[in-house]
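Fold it.
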Amino acid sequence: MKHRIKTIVLYALPYVLAFFGLLFRKKQLDNDSALFTPIQFEFITWITVIFDPGINSFGDALWYLYAVISTAGFGDIVASGLISRIISVLVTVYSVIVIAVITGVIVNYYTQIVEAKNKETLSRFLDRLEQLPELDREELEELSEKVKRFRNE
């Protein structure tokens, strides 16, 4: 029975991968995230169950893929088949790329916040400089102190 399922999956695999490739390209065009959908994750899990002789249940395959995606590699379940090893490598590379993209988005967000604050501060400073003739002595001294602090930074 397992051999028959393997044969069917091997013949269908190029078509299924092409379908997921189209989904991925569509997601890129729509600016959606490139994270695994539940259907893709379930498909990868079943492929792992079918092609790996050491992984006999869907639960074991889920646990194994969790260890691969998180790059933890607990070692209690190990891929022993060629196809499951290839899947493991691809899923690991994919998860590292996704983590890098998420980290980059978060850093970019906070960098933009800091830049906006700096521009706002600089804008207020330039406004005060434009009004230099209208400032009284106290405001001129305050402005002078800010310029000194700015030069020391």
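The domain at 2-152 is CATH 1.10.287.70 (Helix Hairpins).
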